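Protein fold
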Amino acid sequence: MYLTRTFINPRRRGATAFLDAPQKVHAAVLQSFPTDPPTKGSDGPRVLWRLDRDDPRRPVLWIVSPDRPDLHHVVDPYGWPAADSPFESREYKTLLDELADGQRWAFRVTLNPARARFDETRGRSVITPVVDPAEQVGWLVERTPKWGFAVPRTEGAGPAVEIRDGRRLRFRRGRGQPPVTLHTAMFQGLLEVTDAERLRQAMTSGVGRARGYGCGLLSLTRVR
């Protein structure tokens, strides 16, 4: 497994449109590999990606993948092709092997918070977005056990997690296709490992819905 990072230059022609079109980013990521990588429907390691926009001058595209990607086709039109390292990949195995129950890590993940509810008019369950920030945090905390971790509580302040970026994305998967609306939230906080093997699986196969559109890539950093 590899973790890859490249920076996008929003001042380049077409870069903003690229960043705002999840289907285009998804296609570009898949084109980074010589053979079709595992994606939807795969229970094992697959290709995941995420855009971090903390610095609007240098959005970051992260990719987790079984194989090392070649991102020149992204860097040349949208990034910094003249940089010493226009994109960087490092092996993920060292971090994955280090995970153990009881550890605490800082985490970040973009998710598509949604719940299934029964629609009596349609006679079936429908997926509805969770858009209230407090409800989104509760939604996340409910689901973390199956992903191998828990979000500890801070004294007097609730779960140790915050929402850094919330977006409503609307796009078409292709010409003639109906529009897709996606509500996303970027969660950042502290986690405690409760099942290291489940956490490894979550980090290599992704968590939640809409993994093809920039959701589900769970990344960890050491607690400072």
